[in-house]
Amino acid sequence: MTLLLFLWNASFNVNAQQPNILLIISDDLNTNIGPYMNTDKHTPYLDRLASEGVSFSRIYSQFPLCGPSRASFMSGLYPETNGVLRNNDQLGSYRKETPALANHPSMAGFFKERGYYTARISKIFHMGVPGGIERGAVGGDDPDSWDYAYNVLGPETLSQAKLELLSPKNLHYGSNFAQMVIPDSLEGTQTDYMAASQAIAVLENRAGKIPSGGTNKQRDKKEAPFFLAVGFVRPHVPLIAPEKSFAPYSIEKVNLPTVKIGQNVPPQALKRQNDKVWGMDELQQRKTIRAYMASVRFMDEQVGRLLEALDRLDLRKETIVIFMSDHGYNLGEHDCWSKSSLWEGSVRVPVIISVPGNDFEGNYGSNTKSISELLDIYPTLVDLAGMSPEKPSILQGKSLLSLLKGESRGREGNYAYTIYNDGASLRTDRWRYNRWGKDAKGNNEELYDHLNDPEENINLVGEESYEKVLGEMRNKLDQSRDLASSGL
Fold first, then answer.
1. Contact indicator for 187, 246 with CB cutoff of 8 Å
2. End-to-end CA distance of the chain
């Protein structure tokens, strides 16, 4: 096929090929990783990637649950617009859920339509973990997004090790806490290891030189740039990792969060408390946090394998790398665990974007605090690929291009909007406002001052001195809700 040509940035020639894109998505990962906190040698490969790009320290998921979040950032639309408000395995994802979007391409589909070779490895749209993975199921994928798709059939709960239940009140192995410490010799049997191996095979294919007389039977879309999306399921439960990944973390040294809960916190915000859902004693809580950290470490190693393959194949200088999670994850803060809540820890996500080239290298290693949303990634990639005039007008996110270049700290008044079931949340530079239910009633609201209370321990609703701020946040949430629902 004919190459699409453009002037990408100052480090590329005018006849250079459009950039490759490697999108890496970790499942249920919070920001307790090296680039976001002082966690020495916990995630060395993500630390390396952060040193070669920009970390976004205040970027938020639009729905703290796998299926809706992934459908949102892959479509570039808020959940109320694309209609995906729950986990489901309907092929076609948002395009089937909302027929009016049948012709709206996903992030990957946009690049496929413009000549890119697009490949999916493991979980990008919703896919059951465990369950779907154990059967090699396709989940709620959008098949039209990909030239090639690979579903990992991983053992998960069937791995050859002891499965230890850590949450006695929850027996469902898709939402409970359980750990497996597998022998190091069996790491190659694990879902994420196999996903990384297959992703490396795709990179080998795209970088390899076609032999004299070869045809496109060796490589589909022979000379096209690639959009490779790789889904790692860890640290989604069950928390499985090799012995070597557990070794650096001592159960005795695990710190449980200090729990402070105000009397005026709405009960809807506390549905994920330990005694209500999990029933873990202190030792089980410590084991859960340790196993989570071990799972993150194992996932980080797979990221490292991908980065090393890019270097070895001489692809790094022409490949944009994005690392992200679908939402955050609570590990005992507010006595709440897992996702599916509107606390900062559940909706804030790690995002690292590394773009090669002179226009971006001066900003490497930086950390932007501009408020952003996961659905901003779609328009950002379109701009980075030089396709801004072709950007779908329906996209509801904002490009992060100027932040990547260090040209802007973001606009004043920026906010991030998130929903979960009947709850909605607005995060501004200083405030988080949550409302459970449609109308503001006082007893169903939360207002937190992140300047003075970053852990969200003091709900300011009801305090007279904050009535003006509360009124402003109420209005902003109503406006945000209207905008998020009006995409069609």
1. no
2. 35
